[in-house]
Amino acid sequence: MFLEVACFNLESCLIAQKAGAKRVELCQNYSAGGVTPDETTIIEARQQLRIDLFVMIRPREGNFLYSEIEFEEMRSQVEFCKELKCNGVVFGIVTEEYQVDVARCKELVELAKPMECTFHRAFDETENITYALEDCITAGFTRVLTSGKKKTAREGIENLQKLIEKAKNRIKIMPGGGIRSSNISELLNRTVATEFHTAAITDKSEIANEAEIRKIISSF
């Protein structure tokens, strides 16, 4: 089993690494659900992390329908991460009809190579997650981060099961959204997911909790 920790600062990145996480998703602004971190933080994280580093590519909070100017900013952010030899990037773009914007996503996936690409929880904003799954595969994503179109992964377990079955190993389905040591066992027992995503924040700060990460990993 594999744990990715969403980190909103360098301190959390180092905590995640120490606690045994296999990958960091680096972003900032927890209350907004994460946006692209500043370049200095990305550089420092790349220098100090031995585990995989994925970077959120999201130029602003709010919806996932982006203007041409915002899309160009996303392109530049992907190129920056690629130059730093990050392991992956995390993004999601939808259309006005709440479908995956396959053309734009595919363009960023191609630009990002050889980095891996994760379609983030914009997936849960799509009108039909079954169609969205096929679109993510067409666009070339390595994985989808999803709560099963519910507020939390635990609430979305049935949809997560269906998505994993539908994916047939063509793409990874990574449950995320409210995952904690208190519910990871249920998710493990009721899905066959092999990667899980958590922020592991247990207070009102934006700092990951080392003990919580260790508890989750000990359940694997």
Description of the structure:
The chain is an alpha/beta fold. The protein has one domain (2-218): TIM Barrel. It is built from eight helices and eight strands. An eight-stranded parallel beta sheet has the order 7-6-5-4-3-2-1-8, with helices on one face. The longest helix has 16 residues, at 68-83. The mean pLDDT is 97.
Would you identify the regions where 5 or more consecutive residues have pLDDT less than 50?
none
Provide the CATH topology. Answer: TIM Barrel
Strand order of the largest sheet: 7-6-5-4-3-2-1-8
Helix content: 25-40%
Helix count from the secondary structure assignment: 8
> Which range does the strand content fall in?
15-25%
What class do helices, strands and sheet pairing give?
Answer: alpha/beta
Task: Describe the structure concisely for a colleague.
The chain is an alpha/beta fold and 220 residues long.
Features of this protein?
alpha/beta; eight-stranded parallel β-sheet; globular; TIM Barrel; 220 residues
Write the SSE topology.
Blueprint: E1 2-7, H1 10-19, E2 23-26, H2 39-48, E3 52-56, H3 68-83, E4 88-91, H4 102-112, E5 116-119, H5 129-139, E6 143-146, H6 157-167, E7 172-175, H7 184-190, E8 195-198, H8 210-218
Parallel strand pairs: 1-2, 1-8, 2-3, 3-4, 4-5, 5-6, 6-7
